[in-house]
Amino acid sequence: MAEQFEDQDLEARVTYNADEYEEITSDEVDRVIAAIEELMQSVSSENIRAHLSAAADEIFSLVYDEMGEGFESADDVQTEAA
């Protein structure tokens, strides 16, 4: 039951923030992606790793998809590192 209220509260904040402009720098995105990739390497659960990868892809797209730059997903980076 508490989760339902948390989800509604989160949805309300997302809707509110959608009307505002927030500048996100590529440096910030790069730092967050690097932290997620490091976390992915320390996680043994494939399910958690998949969620982290999806989050990294979404965060990456906040800046780089808008700029029209090449897209390399966290999965691709993970595969190359192996």
Characterize this entry briefly.
The protein is an all-alpha fold and 82 residues long.
List the helices and strands and how they pair.
Layout: H1 2-18, H2 26-42, H3 46-67, H4 74-81
Helix pairs in contact: 2-3
What are the key terms here?
disordered N terminus; 0% strand; mainly alpha; elongated; 82 residues; 4 helices
The topology string of helices and strands comes to: HHHH
- Straight-line N-to-C gap: 42 Å
- The percentage helix is over 70%
Q: How many H/I helices?
A: 4
Overall pLDDT confidence:
74
Biggest sheet, in brief? none
> What count of domains describes the coordinates?
1
Stretches with pLDDT under 50, minimum 5 residues: 1-5
- By secondary-structure content and strand pairing, the structural class works out as mainly alpha
Gyration radius, to the nearest Å? 15 Å
Shape type: elongated
Q: Strand percentage, roughly? A: under 5%
How many beta-strand segments?
Answer: 0
Structural account:
The N and C termini lie far apart (42 Å). The chain contains four helices and no strands. The protein is an all-alpha fold. It is 78% helix and 0% strand. The protein is elongated.
